[in-house]
């Protein structure tokens, strides 16, 4: 469990640092990344988006739950991100529910790779 959370933390740190070469090492070649906005990227598209997209100031996985099943793991929690969409705008904080599937990389022995990230924007509670 701690290994998977360390992988997720490292992935988030690479996004914030803008180190896309190191980030690419954490991503499976057949990655599917679905943003809370509904935007869908594969690995190449995600890396291109991050080159020109928003600047991430903070990324935190809150209340994570981890289930390891042999060479696959499910990580579920709340994703809180502070980001700046462009230099002219003030930073915003967004929260979403996130489900991630990590797979053990059997090819190069590098450990775990993110295969799927599905994010869903949180809704305000409906008044009773």
From TrEMBL:
Residues 4-114 form the DUF4440 domain. Pfam families: DUF4440 (PF14534). Gene3D superfamilies: 3.10.450.50. This is DUF4440 domain-containing protein. The lineage of its organism: Bacteria, Pseudomonadati, Pseudomonadota, Betaproteobacteria, Burkholderiales.
